[in-house]
Design a protein that fits this description.
8-stranded parallel sheet, single chain, TIM Barrel, 10 helices, binds zinc ion, 14% strand, alpha/beta
Length: 292
């Protein structure tokens, strides 16, 4: 089984997670930039974070035969912090990088005027850089937040098929699919969407323009929820081709719109170490490729 996690925050995960993901079938992932739980106090913290997302983290993923790409953005929550606003000026420098396949995650947290400004500005950046967009929907007021999100997406003029609206549920999926956007679902261990509800949704809405992710981060989350969803699909009568469609071909099609998705293996410049550092304190695991 070949899996692609289209939304996972590996910065917050361990090498054990990478090994378990590889064993479960994960061969590729996209790591959107997000809020780290602790407020950042300056733009410099974002420079280091974005550099890690295009440097150290793909290197770490490659040690486990997983192809790593990322999305960069000023996240909705920190869009409210005046100390972080200059991140918007920093983004064009990163949006031209090889392994940056989208702008994200952007959207609403508390639906403030500051979030409005950052959301619209970053949709415009996506249009200018011809990149897909990953949009986060708020966990509170999800229905009204999703409606407003779709209005802003429409007003931006971006092609809806270049937008995934994420963290959806039974109440928000129809509006997103009707708008022509991709529908993203984050499958969590305790709260929100689980793999059984996810499979019920797949039966109801079909497999087209659907992305399933684990969204695993520093909170209670499980980087193997993509595999759990795949297993639940099979147990519910979906075929292996259906699983491959949702868990591999859909994310490849969505992020492939960037023209930068490279699934032939780890990044070409990835060697034994990254800027002189490696993850090894013992013997190196055998070399692998993302496709293998
Ligand atoms: Zn996220």
């Amino acid at each position: 089984m070949r899996l692609f996690d289209p939304h996972i925050h590996m910065t917050s995960r361990t090498t054990d997670d990478y090994a378990a993901m590889r064993a479960a079938g994960v061969r590729a992932l996209v790591e959107p930039s997000f809020w780290l739980g602790q407020p950042r106090t300056s733009v410099g913290s974002f420079v280091d974070y974005f550099d890690a997302l295009i440097g150290w983290e793909p290197f770490r993923a490659a040690q486990f035969g997983i192809s790593h790409h990322c999305a960069v953005a000023l996240n909705p929550k920190e869009a409210n912090d005046p100390r972080c606003r200059e991140v918007l000026d920093l983004l064009p420098r990163y949006l031209v990088k090889d392994r940056v396949v989208a702008v994200g995650e952007i959207g609403y947290d508390s639906m403030t005027p500051e979030e409005d400004t950052a959301f619209a500005a970053q949709l415009a950046l996506a249009v200018r850089h011809d990149l897909p967009v990953l949009v986060h929907t708020p966990h509170r007021d999800k229905a009204s937040g999703t409606r407003r999100t779709l209005d802003v997406v429409r007003e931006s003029g971006i092609a809806p098929e270049r937008v995934v609206v994420d963290h959806l549920n039974e109440l928000t999926v129809a509006a997103v699919l009707d708008a022509g956007c991709w529908a993203g679902f984050s499958v969590y261990p305790q709260t929100k969407m689980d793999e059984h509800r996810m499979v019920t949704l797949l039966r109801e809405y079909g497999l087209e323009r659907i992305l399933v992710n684990s969204a695993a981060d520093w909170g209670r989350s499980d980087p193997l929820k993509t595999r759990a969803t795949a297993d639940t699909m099979l147990a519910s009568g979906f075929t292996t081709a259906d699983v491959e469609r949702v868990m591999w071909h859909n994310p490849v099609a969505f992020y492939g719109q960037s023209g930068r998705l490279d699934l032939t293996g780890p990044a070409p410049d990835i060697g034994e170490s990254h800027e002189g550092n490696s993850i090894e304190r013992g013997p190196r695991p055998a070399a692998r490729t993302a496709a293998g």
